[in-house]
Amino acid sequence: MIETAAREQRSAEPVVRPVRPRKLGKVPFVELADGRLQGVVSSGSDLARVYVSSISAATHGFSCSTNNNRPCGGLSGGSPCKHLRALADEAVLQYGLDRVTRYLRVEAGDDDDLMSRLDGTREAAPAAGVFSRFLRHLAYLELPGSTAPIAEMHWFPAVSAEVR
Amino acid sequence: MLGVQLAELTGAAPDGTEEALDLVAGFDDALAHGLGRLGGERSAALTALAGALDATPLGPAVREAAEKIAAGSVTDEHLAALAGGRTALFGAVHDALLGRLDAALGRTRAGWAEAAIETDAEAPLLGAARSWLQELAITGWRGVDHDLVSASDQAVEALLADPGARRLAVLLDGLAAELRASSPVATMERLPVRRWADLWARALLLCRPGGRSGLVGREEPGGRSGPVGREEQGSVGREEPTQVSGRLLILGVDVHEHATAVQAQVHAVLEPAGGARPRVVRVSVGAAKVDTIVGPAVWRLLDAHPTLLGALAERRGLDVTDMSLPASGDLIWHDDRAALAEPADPFVTARVLLPEAAFPAVPPLERHPVRIAEPVLVEGHRIGDGAVELDGHTLALDLDRLPGLGPLTPAMVTAAEACVGLVRWDGGRWTLQPLAVRGTLKRKPFEAHGGDWAMGPTDPKVVKAEAKAGDAVAVLRERAGRLLRR
Q1: Which residues constitute the domain of residue B257?
Q2: Which domain of life is it from (chain A) (predicted)?
Q3: What pairs with residue B242 in β-bridges?
């Protein structure tokens, strides 16, 4: 094998691999950001309603509310609601179990249920902020395309999802 | 490409390359630790960078910046001078490497005409981007955390809304996403220090007045002065684009993407109407995206260019009429001025036309080794250890650059009897990025081009997987329609 150059000395070194494809209908938005696994989950009953769910990496505390900040009824018992479970499942599909557990600083094997490995309790989280990040995410799809070359994109080669 | 050509290409690095890269590495190390608290050794690295530029017009500014920053004053102007100095060094490395490639392959490349430097008015949007870049430099990569990354959000959002600032916006968004995924960076074992310093330096230059006019291929006529071939280091200029018509023969497509942007860059040979010398050109079409749109679905974001995508998918040539072609060789695409032509074989195009074609100049601000992507045909080779071998000389294959939006696999590439690819240089070595391959696998002949799935995948297994995952683009566009316009 020809010796590969050190990561430190490569300009086009892939840092973030493409995420894995998944169905987006139920959980249109998932991200590992701001120290949380957070995202937006569609309501099962009302097309116009979405839930904002998040789990803190530092405390494993969880939160779920509508985008209008009404608390999710499913949280009243003190355990995670179905939206949080859907969020965790889709995050594992999108990023892989390894990346999610590393971000949340939790140990979980392939056969473990991620939610059962978290021992946080219900806590307040900024739903409005996550929801506005979701809107910003969607706004990318409204930006006009371009035919002017972007030379800077040479630093971002399209690569395979798996390391080769 | 012949063995003797490959031998010349991959021979000892051009004189001065290693020394230049050592100076860059010293600067990059300082940037990783933060310019706000330089120790003696790292201050010396900045002084060494300045020393290398003493004889150039940038010399005094870089020297002053190195001294002031060592004394603790990290201003915007000083950072711009250092970014300029680092960029000039990489520009020289780029020129030496591309010169080596052209000499090895016997190619003639146009010089860059010195153009009027357009200093557009200071855009208010750039201030926020600059102060974020300054904050990053003072803190150093190792000090980057979630709060510092989030501080870029507003700047990026504002820049994205301005089509004239797309280059800077896309660059900053890509850098921020990597820093976000890596935060807190202090816990990372090995940092991509050269890469992040590259992105930082380019962003800082794009933030300067005049940086925006570095956009090649704007259609309004630009000033032109001075003879072809005269060059000025670091000047941001552009030449008046010419209008061209003719037959466009595709060599292959190179796709660039990060979470929120995609660009398909088509490498092709233009046979101008009227029989002038064929010219090697690049066509770039791009779109904004989100991270959950991946694989073949990405092509759907480029559906504003059906003729171009059709030519890729059907392996055809294109007849183009009155398109703008700046000196950089970046043909500015207008899908309505193109028509599908006869089927065209990229292996034939490469074999017949590349040896006689004219190659375009590289705009000064774009001179960095990462932009080197030169089309070649490799055949009659052996493959072993992840490299092609011609007469005992080897060129490493880049098997990572085989994205899921196209049919090429490592198995195909390593079984290929002929390969059209791009010669690139990174991390001190030359590589071959395959664009189209032809060969025999399990006793069956195959041929695969990177753009084969531009109008949708043709492999039944991939079609099935796509159907199972659902239409991500449609789902998100529907959500956007419902939520953004409420």
Answers
A1: 242-353
A2: Bacteria
A3: B325
Whether residue B219 is predicted with pLDDT greater than 50 in this model: the reply is no
Taking the C-alpha atoms of residue B117 and residue B27, their distance in angstroms, rounded to an integer, is 28
Could A155 and B400 be called an inter-chain contact, meaning their C-beta atoms sit closer than 8 Å?
Answer: no
Task: State what percent of residues in chain A have pLDDT above 70.
Answer: 96
Verify that B205 and B257 share a domain, yes or no: no
**A153 close contact with B: CB closer than 8 A:** yes
Q: How far apart are CA B134 and CA B417, in angstroms?
A: 50
Distant-in-sequence, close-in-space partners of B452: CB < 8 Å, separation ≥ 6: B312, B313, B315, B406, B407, B458
Residue B377 lies in a domain: no
Asked if B183 and A67 touch (Cβ cutoff 8 Å), the reply is no
> What span, in angstroms and rounded, lies between the C-alpha atoms of B440 and B446?
6
Mark yes or no for CB contact B256/A153 under 8 Å.
yes
Average pLDDT over residues B293-310: 96
Residue B389, C-beta contacts closer than 8 angstroms, at least 6 positions apart: B381, B382, B383
Q: What are phi and psi of B42, to 5 degrees?
A: -75, -30
Alpha helices by DSSP H, chain A: 82-95, 97-104, 127-139
Which residue spans within chain A are E strands per DSSP? 29-33, 36-42, 50-56, 62-66
